[in-house]
Amino acid sequence: MLIAGFPAGAFQTNCYVVAPAAGEECVIVDPGQDATDGVDELLREHRLKPVAVLLTHGHLDHVWSVAPVCGARDVPAWIHPDDRHLLSDPAAGWSDTSAQLFGGLTLSEPDAVRELSDGAVLRLAGLELVVDHTPGHTRGSVSFRSPGEEIMFSGDLLFAGSIGRSDLPGGDYATILRSLATKCLPLPDDTVVLPGHGPQTTIGRERAVNPYLKEAAPHAGPTRGI
């Protein structure tokens, strides 16, 4: 599997392109602020043809460039229905104070939007990705797993040493702990976590050092690969 990415914009949100190999079809994950040039560069470098954009959630720093990226190549965006409204109303995902920072910024939905559901299996670009609904950061947060490759695109659910904030509209701390317990802790230790911000990590490392996973652990069921 080919995975390439870069931190986009002032928020340094990780945008990824994912394909079976160079020269094939791909999906794009979370094209954030000013991500279009970086996406174009990766597509040219690896000779990739995108077939879809996948969104881990609807916050502005993850969806800023979704409409132009989708529109330039006539591909759909996939998002959980609980976050779909954020595509056209980005201020709804932020506190009143934070929303003021974006002034009169307006976004719009791509021409084609498809909705994600928990447990769905996406077969796109020769890839198989499992959708896990992981609310707590937003109501419609999801992560994407490639089970055969033991890879997880965690969005803003899980970071190296930390987790996503839960104090914005739609966030809830108890809910994000439940998502960590039910969707992260059961995964094998060697699962590579590619987060929405910061460096990659593994489930095993986070199980050992992340205080939030330790807090979530009592709520988890049986684990695998320990």
Automatic annotation (TrEMBL):
SUPFAM superfamilies: Metallo-hydrolase/oxidoreductase. It comes from Nonomuraea diastatica. InterPro entries: MBL_Glyoxalase_II, Metallo-B-lactamas, RibonucZ/Hydroxyglut_hydro. The lineage of its organism: Bacteria, Bacillati, Actinomycetota, Actinomycetes, Streptosporangiales. Residues 12-197 form the Metallo-beta-lactamase domain. Keywords: Hydrolase, Metal-binding, Zinc. It holds the Pfam family Lactamase_B. Transmembrane segments: none annotated. One of its GO terms (molecular function) is hydrolase activity. Its cofactor is Zn(2+). The keyword Transferase does not apply. This is MBL fold metallo-hydrolase.
